[in-house]
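FIELD: query
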Amino acid sequence: MSKDLVVKKSSLPDAGKGLFTKRDIKKGERFIEYLGEVVTEAELDRRAEKDIFGYAFYISKKKCIDAFYTPNELARYANDARGLNKIKGVKNNACYVVYKNSGWIKAEKNIKAGEEIFVSYGAEYWKDIRYNIKLDKERAALKKKAKKSKK
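FIELD: result
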């Protein structure tokens, strides 16, 4: 299946790479397994504290797939069309599903060859991202203020 998918520049602004299909995918088709290192939710939390996060698929508290260290696994490149940099009219066309205790991406509608694959990351993911962006801005402002006070 993955031979029918390709990673290239996403159509979403500032999203980096995206996942595209080279063939038509029918609605309801599970077309790529989400692969990576199998870890616990607790391990994912530890990694997140070290800013090692962003490619996790939760199956259960005891089984999560972390694709952070596996850039060759294509499913991690599917973007969320409803993320920070939306394009009017572009919507998610696939979803994450658990099938036989493994993670998959499944088409929610027919996807034509050449289209980018978009999946929802969920509201909690984007809430965390926005919070981290706010923290980064606050840290940068404090650094700038500290630098000025040293002069």
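FIELD: remark
The two ends are 59 Å apart (CA to CA).
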